[in-house]
Specification:
single chain; mainly alpha; Mitochondrial carrier fold; two-stranded antiparallel sheet; 8 helices; 5 strands; 5% strand; mitochondrion outer membrane; transmembrane; transport; transmembrane helix; membrane
Length: 312
């Protein structure tokens, strides 16, 4: 009886956590939309000039910051455009929450030794050795990586759907309408390679961040222990986010064709093409310096030119 009560309470907490994440995602989706367009290289608004260090440094051209970008986009195409793909984003969060819970529960029940035997799990950090602490953190990172890999793989079609819905704004297209029709179209036209495009770099990035975070936490906790400043703290899960490699091959949108970009056979070719300037797209929301080509628009203002080639 107690077990079922605890299980129901845990499910209620899980539902509340997912609900909170959905609400946060809905509120911040305009920034997600803007960041996705920036990562795709869509810069339709004029550049400004300034200093690289705000008041000091060299003169440079700057792209509009995220809020200015969102404001100009909403003014040009309506407020609703900022919420493009929100249905796919919300579905992705719900699926990720449920998958993460079920995967973690499954491996805890049937595979408790993944990453090593569970030792000193309930011990305070100050009462175990460096080696024991390292083993505990390593085990946690391995298990967390496993959960993240499964979760991101299951939710990847929804992430792809969101990206495609936002990407079609660049060419003012209406190919993808709603999360279910979008997944259906991608599945019919491209099959699994389309639904899971860009998955490998996302998984690699996620695993790197998980292990990097675990290493930093281990180093910080052991430093506190050896300095005598350690205090018992409640365990907190660390939410980390990997990077999205926005894979544009075979999506059938204008952004995936020349002159916007060449066709990418795989993520290696996308990496090679983006290496000079494009890999950091979306990394900054403010002070976004334009390091690539610049062109003069019909209004005689300067614009970023991220196209593969420019038609004269």
């Amino acid at each position: 009886m107690i077990y079922y009560l605890l299980l129901e309470n845990f499910k209620e907490v899980l539902a509340k956590n997912i609900g909170a994440k959905v609400l946060l995602a809905a509120v911040t989706h305009p920034l997600t939309c803007v960041k996705t367009l920036i990562q795709l290289g869509h810069e339709p608004f004029p550049l400004s000039t300034g200093k690289t260090l705000i008041v000091a440094g060299r003169n440079a051209y700057f792209l509009p910051n995220a809020f200015s970008y969102a404001s100009q986009l909403a003014h040009a195409r309506g407020m609703g455009v900022l919420f493009t793909g929100i249905d796919s984003a919300i579905c992705s969060i719900i699926i990720q929450g449920i998958t993460s819970y079920q995967t973690r529960k499954y491996i805890d029940t049937y595979y408790p030794e993944i990453g090593g035997k569970p030792e000193n799990e309930n011990e305070e950090e100050k009462s175990i050795t460096n080696h024991q602490s390292l083993k505990r953190h390593l085990r946690g990172a391995i298990r967390e990586s496993f959960v993240r890999v499964v979760t991101l793989t299951v939710a990847r079609p929804l992430t792809v759907a969101m990206i495609r819905q936002i990407a079609q704004l660049i060419g003012s297209e209406t190919k993808y309408r709603g999360v279910v029709p979008t997944i259906h179209v991608i599945g019919l036209e491209e099959g699994p390679p389309g639904l899971f495009s860009g998955l490998v770099p996302q998984l690699v990035g996620e695993v790197i961040v998980v292990f990097g975070t675990a290493a930093l936490v281990f180093a910080a906790e052991r430093a506190f222990v050896h300095s005598g400043m350690y205090e018992k703290k409640d365990e907190k899960s660390v939410k980390v986010r990997g990077f999205d490699q926005l894979f544009k091959s075979c999506c059938g949108l204008a952004v995936s064709f020349l002159p916007y970009a060449p066709s990418f056979v795989n993520w290696h070719s996308a990496w090679d093409y983006l290496s000079p300037y494009g890999l950091k797209r979306g990394a900054r929301l403010f002070l976004r310096e334009q390091c690539g080509a610049v062109s003069v628009g019909p209004d005689h203002q300067l614009y970023a030119n991220n196209k593969y080639f420019t038609q004269i």
